[in-house]
Amino acid sequence: MIGLEYVYILAGLMFGAFAVQHALDRANPHRWRSAVFWGAYAVSFLFGSHLPDTVNGAIVLVMVALAGIGGLRPGAVRSTTTEQRVASAARWGNLLFVPALIIPAVAVLGTLFLKYVTIGGAPLVDPAQVTVISLALGVICALIVGLAILRPPPTAPLHEGRRLIDSVGWAAVLPQMLAALGALFALAGVGKVVATLVTDYVPMTSSFVVIATFTIGMALFTIVMGNALAAFPVMTAGIGLPLIVTQFHGDPVVVSALGMLSGFCGTLMTPMAANFNIVPAALLELKDRYGVIKVQVTTGLLLLICNTLLMYFFAFPR
Amino acid sequence: MLVLSGILVVIVGFVAGLNPLLVVTVAGFVTGLAAGIDPAAVLADFGHAFITSRYVAIVWLVVPVIGLLERAGLRERAHTLIGHVHAATVGRLLIVYMLFRQLTAAVGLTSIGGHAQMVRPLIAPMAEAAEENLGPIDEETRMTIRANAAAVDNIGVFFGEDIFIAIGSILLIKGVLQQSGITVQPTDLAVWAIPTAILAFIIHGARLLLLDRRLKQARERRS
Prior knowledge:
The complex is a heterodimer of chains A (318) and B (223). Chain A has 318 residues and is an all-alpha fold. Helix content of chain A is 73%, strand content 1%. Chain A has a two-stranded antiparallel sheet with strand order 1-2. In chain A, a hairpin with a 2-residue loop joins strand 1 and strand 2. In chain A, helix 9 packs parallel to helix 11 and helix 11 runs antiparallel to helix 12. Helix content of chain B is 74%, strand content 0%. The mean pLDDT of chain B is 91. The interface between A and B is large, with 143 and 109 residues.
């Protein structure tokens, strides 16, 4: 059965190739810093499942030290010039979109159908991981088609991939670090303490106060945790069910659906949701690390008000 | 109470502009120690949590393909394509993409889109081209357009995906309520995602039209 581990090995090989390029880049005086950073990341993908937890923790510390103290520098760019790209774009035309669209097409088809494929009674891919595996499959298909059409030097995908990941830099690892921090928060019981604080200090006298506390609490908690899914169980057990549903007889369907969406409003406003807010700023080479968040804050706040009012008017059946 | 010190570290660290990887690591250790876990165990817990979260980084597998296509002029082609569409403005283009992202996410197709696959190679160059059709643009305008391109991808998927019944957040709601003895149908939850989805489209769509107006005023000031 093809599971997540195969995808991790693929990712490990890719990051390993990036590390080797940095190590060979004699022109970059900081080449070893980048080489060790991406090399350590490659090791965590290739062997992480088999290494002791302490060793994995030490690998993370090495990466953090390299990126956090001194920082990473991009390596030498081996790509085409703007003039070459304009000429190439004119030559290939809309054919260039084909490999780019193969990735989502294969990812969607794989997600829909791969779980039904069996070999000798056993499923071909791990049904729980079918989305991630389909994405990896989409990338492989797109790469094959792209190489067949464009016929670049065979090392071009790895050079270009490294150019892109260099422009993102340490931010590429931030979403995973934040997911790990979320797990540590859960282990230490941070959620329960926050819910207790909210319920202890806000006067829960009217249905509107309770509902506003719940929706704003969901947004604030999501801003802190970076993930509405982490905030939802805590806020629902602390306020949603005991107060809105049991005490004020709110409809659990309306309360929980709009509560989750209030959390999503929080996601729009926090650097802790790095994969949505910080990584794209790096990918698009924005000067302001918080540029994407600044665009989203107004929409997030307005929608939070909408969710609160919707819940107030529709959670109580009359 | 003491376990909240990690949150304080995060806030202070982000506000002070320190390297986020460093901030997050320190916050993790502070939280673990405050919860009474010994340092060696915190290191192991952090390592374990990092390894089990590797799936978050799988999206980076796309960079060799996107890089290869950029090398061959993908962004330039996306740019040219919009250059021929004279009705295109930044706001209108991004509204169309946001609607597309909401509708596809609502039927479960959340993998269509994303910042690495769609926004950097296609949507951002198209949005820049739409503005460049109307005149030369400065660096600050370019940054504003790019940030807006990234934002519509988020807003579209966040306020579309909950209309689909088999998405993680809907299943989580069902599971949490189930534990308290309340059984709900995913379809009922999904229906209640529709009003917010429509409001998200109206609110952010209106803001994008305002962006068009701001861009127009900036153009007129320059000329």
